[in-house]
Design brief:
seven-stranded mixed β-sheet, 407 residues, binds coenzyme A, Aminopeptidase, 21 strands, Nonspecific Lipid-transfer Protein, Chain A, 10 helices, alpha+beta, globular
Length: 407
Amino acid sequence: MTERIAVRPAVSEDYEEFRALFARALMFDLPAGNDVGRALFEPERALVATDGDEIIGTTRALTRDLSVPGAVVPAAHVTGVGVRATHRRRGVMSELITRQLREVPEAIAVLWASESDIYGRFGYGPAAWGVSYEVDLHRVGPPDVRVRPGEFGLLAAADAVEQLAPLLKRLQERRPGVSGRSELGWQQQLQDEPESRGGKTSRQIVVHRDETGAVDGYALWRGKMNWEPVGPSNEVSVEEVVAIEPAAYRALWHYLLTLDLAAKLEYGHAAVDEPLLQLVTTPTALNRRVSESLWVRVTDVPRALAQRRYAAPVDLVFEVTDDLIPANAGRFRLTADGPSTPAKCHQTDDPADLTLSVRDLGAIYLGGRPLTEFAATGRVTEHRPEALTTATTAFTWPTPPVSIEIF
Ligand SMILES: CC(C)(COP(=O)(O)OP(=O)(O)OC[C@H]1O[C@@H](n2cnc3c(N)ncnc32)[C@H](O)[C@@H]1OP(=O)(O)O)[C@@H](O)C(=O)NCCC(=O)NCCS
């Protein structure tokens, strides 16, 4: 980049320095590195910027899959983006992210952004909303505590992966935006170092069992004791709820909303259409807040568009603008018959029906945001009548995306 600052792929020996830099950039103390974290590092997919011998900037991509409308596809999971405060605002991140985007083999890259302002300039679009709750358990009108809603069990982390992993895969089949986890990824997710608990209890892994005894849903949660002068006011912090059957969903939320001594429940990964709204009598007591969760960057337009499904037939030419990846800039014909058959997409010289940026293509990619939203501010141009309606209907998916894990 300059005489002193250079960018290179990481090597496995960079692991500790890489982690330390990222932790310092985000202002938290990392627990000591461990074998699982090291095994997941993928140095060949990480980039570091160096000033002399020192690492001053980092980014990495994790090899994981992601559910998208009608499919589960490879997606570069970008994380660890940090630049040492002494070297900020000199273009280090720009160099790292641009090179990363040009090199990733997957047709899409995804990330969670620390700040909304950062990644749009690189063609990432916010594709999923995250809903967080701060539930006032005294007001929300939880289900009757005298009713036993189902059969539950508690699992130890060591026994959990085998039982929970199939449920996450089932969730991926029905919801876009859900990241898959390898065996090692699960082990990392279920690590529970005391120094990372933020004053809360150890994690509880509660499962729901159907009438045959099979596990059909789980919740990961922690508690925090809090006694006020007037009595107990404990807090429940829910990390993850995955339920495959309606009975499991109802039972697990019944369990969480009625825990003894608790006055407040926090949950950060609800969907915009979270069915929990139907199970409480006072939805305003959920204290809902909406923010961006998963950002999507399309790195290979024809491949990305062909690998998802469409809710309705479509045959349109999209003109895409992209300042960073030249092969993405051009016109592409997308054809699909509907959700049950694969789509096709290829470059074309035919006139465009719609023009949009790669950023807005990323924002609509998971089916959670209508294209009309972007046309309303002039960011999408319609060249043929009905093209906007056809594209919006085809891209929008009946189940909105949700990302349940900040990676
Ligand atoms: C965010 C961070 C990686 C940026 O690194 P950097 O090397 O300073 O970024 P660059 O110099 O390449 O900046 C590129 C552009 O992004 C803008 N930008 C950088 N950080 C920004 C921020 N936090 N908010 C808004 N804009 C930001 C810059 O102003 C610059 O804009 P310009 O091109 O219009 O001049 C770095 O400040 C950092 O480590 N922050 C703390 C950790 C963090 O938030 N990491 C992201 C995790 S998702």
